[in-house]
């Protein structure tokens, strides 16, 4: 396990450097800059003043010098300054991070539990009405865009039934601490988490169903049945445990992509997370924030993949021997 961690650490540094260089180059190729937006908002037309602002933000230097300076700044956890948020980029991201992490982990946990259970149910009742129903619902949610699901759920549960709030994270004027505050956040979180999680739940359902059916045909499962174990014992003790391996792999890969789905969901529900910050930063060409989010997202994805590898070892210790 220590060797695995050491290998991961060796891989992280060049990968992060590659992410920084790639995103920096892409941002340089994008039309316009935050200086254009800032001078337009402030109605600054004086060329001398614009050139002074360009020098202030280091935009008068060659691109490779800006890149080297940025890499040096990232090494000291300095991701630059956001003129839009009027604060350091790292502080702007960290202020939105708790809301995004809450949405991401809630939605992915719901998706993992519901999708895995539905996949096991479909596999255990293969070629029956249960299997057809679960597979059809999974296909529907797999094909439906997250923002469309969010709008439909809002119309049903917020507008028509009035059970849940339309958007935001807290009710204005409501308690912000204690059980009342937690319940208020949970009510606001329900629809965004379900909207984001349904797509991933559909994916887990399809993968889990196929994996359970494949493992059920292996020799050790047949041997378990031959020993006289009941069907539920064979299913949960031998089949599901081994069938979880591809689902855990998928979970690790999707945790890095949940942020992309969270952007549209946060926009629909007005959820104050990194997705909303990224969308606002792209629209205002606040590129230091965009670049900072990309870098931190890459680090987050690498960490999650390392945790998934460790979970792999826990589920199947034979992997370590290979």
Task: Name a few traits of the molecule.
322 residues, 78% helix, two-stranded antiparallel ribbon, mainly alpha, MetI-like fold, single chain, MetI-like_sf, 2 strands, 14 helices
Order of strands in the sheet with most strands: 1-2
Mind summarizing the main beta sheet? 2 strands, antiparallel
DSSP summary, beta strand count: 2
Tell me the CATH topology of the largest domain. MetI-like fold
Secondary structure class reads mainly alpha
CATH architecture of the largest domain: Orthogonal Bundle
Q: Runs with pLDDT <50, length 5+?
A: none
What's the level 1 CATH class of the largest domain? Mainly Alpha
Relevant CATH superfamily of the largest domain? MetI-like
Q: How would you describe the shape?
A: globular
> What is the total domain count?
2
N-C termini distance: 12 Å
Q: What would you report as the Rg, rounded to the nearest angstrom?
A: 24 Å
How much strand content do the residues show? under 5%
Summarize this entry quickly:
This protein is mainly α and 322 residues long. It is built from 14 helices and two strands. The longest helix is centred in the middle third of the chain and has 38 residues, at 178-215.
